[in-house]
Amino acid sequence: MADPRSRFDLSGKVALVTGGSRGLGRAMVLAFADAGADVVIASRKLASCEATADEVRRATGRRALPVACHVGHWGQVEKLAEAAYAEFGRVDVLVNNAGMSPVYDRIENVTEELWDKVVDVNLKGPFRLTAMVGARMAAGAGGSIIMVSSTAAVRPSAGVIPYAAAKAAVNAMTEGFARAFGPTVRVNCIMPGPFLTDISKAWDLEAFRARAKATMPLGRGGEPDEIVGAALYFASSASSFTTGAVLGVHGGAA
Fold first, then answer.
1. Which alpha helices (DSSP H) does 140-247 contain, by range?
2. Which of 58, 74, 141, 147 has its CA 20 to 30 A from that of 184?
3. CATH for 208
4. pLDDT at residue number 1
5. Is the pTM of this model over 0.90?
6. Range of the domain at 38
């Protein structure tokens, strides 16, 4: 019997991760490279992508392509896909991780501009990138696409309604794309709960920790590297019979 660990090997693969320069995206980029993949790191700030790419090269020796991309703009998303294929000739793993949830005081004060910005980044961009890359995967050797939604998709609070609506649509889109691109392309979704990434620096952490202890079975927020198990599972042949799935990684928060 083959070593089960070999199912998680990504040697010879190319992984593209949006929002890949920090937080959960950075943790996934480093894990994919450590598992043998070359990586495309996309985010709005090129310098941040370059720093993560340098870290990948030093730590793993894998090739890393940094690309500045605002996923809310289809033109930039299309250029990102073309840059990845021009550099590597293929994309085997796509992770739609970039996201945003601006703060607002009252729901009636949400502007059309804020609504459009949230939907563009969290839904419109991932749709276009998945359509482009998924079609090329299906026409070639196949691949794995990983959406990243949020527990807000199923348990929205009053302060994140536009974000929650977009992420609920991401959950639905996961199954739709799984049907569109099967059988050679698998499309799954990670649904994270509260993680202690850069975003958490804006939280009242004392209040969050008290609430987590009272309401979450694991009693705490997640650390970025705790997303890695789910990401490697969906990216690799370990999940060869899994598609259209939404996996909660949330400490029981949902």
1. 161-181, 205-215, 228-235
2. 74
3. 3.40.50.720
4. 58
5. yes
6. 9-247
